[in-house]
Amino acid sequence: MSVMSYFLRSPLSRSVVSGWHWRSAKAELQQPDSNGRVVLIGAGPGDPELLTVKAQRLLQQADVLLFDSLVSAELLAIAPRRCKKVFVGKRAGRHAMPQQDINQLLVKYGQQGGLVVRLKGGDPAIFGRIAEEAAALQQAGIAFAIVPGVTSACAASAYCGIPLTARGSATSVQFLTAQFADPAKQPDWSGYQYRTNGTNPTLVVYMGLNRLQQLCAGLASAGWPDHTPIALLDQVSTKQQQQLQGTLADISQRLAANPLCGPTLIVIGEVLHQRMTVDLSLLQTTAVA
After folding, report:
1. Half-sphere exposure (CA, 13 Å, Cβ side) for 172?
2. CA dihedral of residues 165, 160, 190, 263 (deg, nearest 10)
3. What is the DSSP-derived secondary structure letter of residue 44?
4. Which end of the chain is flanked by fewer CB atoms within 10 Å, N or C?
């Protein structure tokens, strides 16, 4: 009897073979990892080409994708066909799904195994409620990581030619949101007191279009002059990008005459007097030789 025949007849061979799972290499590759993991990814401000290389790689590997309203179809197409796509549609003032339900979904899919991607517009750490989602995952014992994205403020600076800081105009920049869990709540305007001596920060307001009048009134109460320049930057970095500029005194009237769709970023400060002329055609693929 040959050595191979003896092995195949032995109890050892039966115990080894019984542990094998006979399936194709293709099925093996498609089988999700039993150890679930979640990656919270910033999708950027709207231009699909502003997605980071790392984010693109992870999207291509995703088994489940939870995405917001601001995520473009071009980005969704990066995920593989087998990927389960779940819309959790959040925009300022219009939430298709409460945050608590999103947290529970992340935990649910994370416990099922494979790679779960949570795709958020802009950068997930800037007004993206990332701390709440991370806390839910951590409490459930699910491994997670974060991939930053280009936030709207940086995209607005580049695509609209607005320096967020400039020597002699602003040496710092402050991000604030006009949206709160309680719609009646307002920012603490005493924290944004206008300084008559020295420079004031550039203010960048997220999700503030629907509360523009309250925003202007609040800054006026903190001493900001009526002539302070303010710009409304709509759908930044997309083909639908629009801009509207005025002062704290007249911007609401200008908006009424020229409505914007949103999402809209608001920039306030003297840096608007130092705007740069940016040629966006240079960023188009057709402009590259």
Report:
1. 7
2. -150
3. B
4. C
The Cα–Cα gap between 3 and 98 comes to 65
| C-alpha 106 chain-centroid distance | 16
84 tagged catalytic: no
Assess whether 68 carries a catalytic annotation: yes
Domains, in order of start, for the chain: 33-150 (3.40.1010.10), 153-274 (3.30.950.10)
Listed in sequence order, the residues at least 6 apart from 143 whose beta carbon sits closer than 8 Å to its beta carbon are 35, 36, 37, 38, 137
DSSP string, 115-148: EEEEEESB-TTSSS-HHHHHHHHHHTT-EEEEE-
Catalytic one of 47, 90, 120, 234: 90
pLDDT tens figures, 33-55:
557 899 999 999 999 999 999 99
Residues of the chain with pLDDT under 50: 3-8, 11-32, 287-288
Give residue 186's identity as a one-letter amino acid code.
Q
Segment 199-241, tens digit of pLDDT: 899 999 999 999 999 999 999 999 999 999 999 999 999 999 9
Q: Say whether 168 sits in a helix, a strand or coil.
A: coil
Q: Which residue of the set 47, 54, 63, 68 is catalytic?
A: 68
Q: What is the pTM of this model?
A: 0.83
Handedness of CA 177, 180, 183, 187 (dihedral sign): negative
- DSSP-assigned states of every residue in 214-276: HHHHHHHHTT--TT-EEEEEESTTSTT-EEEEEETTTHHHHHHHS---S-EEEEESGGGGG--
Closest residue by Cα to residue 260 from 280, 238, 243: 243
